[in-house]
Amino acid sequence: MFITKIGIDLGTANTVVFVPGKGFIINEPTIVALTKPENRILAVGREAKEMIGRAPDDIIPYRPLKDGVIADYYITKAMLSYFISKAAGRFHLIKPEVVISVPAGITQTERRAVINAAKEAGAKEVYVVREPILAALGAGIPINSYSGNMIINIGGGTAEVAVVSLGGIVSWKSLRVAGNKFDQVLMDYIKKKHSLSIGEQMAETVKISIGSALPSKQKLEFQLRGLDLISGLPKDLIINSNEVAEAISPLLNDIAAAVQDVFNSTPPELVADIMDKGIILSGGGALLRNLDEFFERIIGVPSYQAEEPLFCVARGTGIILNHLDTYKRTLLNKK
Hints:
Subcellular location: Cytoplasm
Number of strands: 19
CATH class of the largest domain: Alpha Beta
Largest sheet: 6 strands, mixed
Family: Belongs to the FtsA/MreB family.
Binding site for ATP: 12-14, 156-158, 204-207, 284-287
Mean pLDDT: 92
CATH superfamily of the largest domain: ATPase, nucleotide binding domain
Low-confidence stretches: none
Strand order of the largest sheet: 3-2-1-9-10-19
CATH topology of the largest domain: Nucleotidyltransferase, domain 5
Protein name: Cell shape-determining protein MreB
Order of helices and strands: EEEEEHEEEHEHEHEEEHEHEEHHEHEHHE
Number of domains: 3
Distance between the termini: 28 Å
Main location: cytoplasm
Strand content: 25-35%
């Protein structure tokens, strides 16, 4: 079977690839391992991530995307070539049409870089679609309806708040506050409070295992291991979910402020629709415990986690690919 269409959720933290008829076939970290000084690519994806904190000095794990956009063109091109070849087959004879997600605030130059990189990586045609639209489609929101819908998509590099109506984005705001920043503030918090240094992967594991947007009487606990900054020796530490909530609360408050800003720039009729239907949460960050309750408390609007929030954007690419001729005439901008 020839693969002629591929959807790519090109995220700062993870890349998810969707193929019509097969579903989600790739979900790997957006990381490349490079050898220094020649910058030769040694590994991509999951294999590269496993090298973080473990590789010798001449092997550097590198994220080619920053805040949702390309930070290194040539490494991104090589990474896309890896994912396209893995999805379509190494010796694919037919170049596939590719739908790729991009942040809502992407510039024309950044958009062109994504398109060119994907074409040089093996795509026949490339269609770029803004992430809030894809997330809304993947969450089951009827984006062509007259009614307004709000979606908060929290990825690895950016958090985007958008109101969608009549097939487009009415108002939106993008923040460089997302999963990777959650990991960093947690690392900083543990270092400051407990004088313990932990790595990026350990911080992510803590976040996924016990992370919560709100403190609770029923605290979850996690035993982690790091480097005691006082003794210089390895040390075990038990951290609880309330500490995680305290560490990430400034970032969540920033996202809540962005939601309020978007409401302030949204027509009253659409605001009324959102008040009735609630806010949809998507992206890997939506998996944070009690996040829906957090937004409901702060904003005063019911909030709901989308089904399989991590895959909403990739699922949205699949919906477009399944109706590509229709969306070519309306939503897509082919460059």
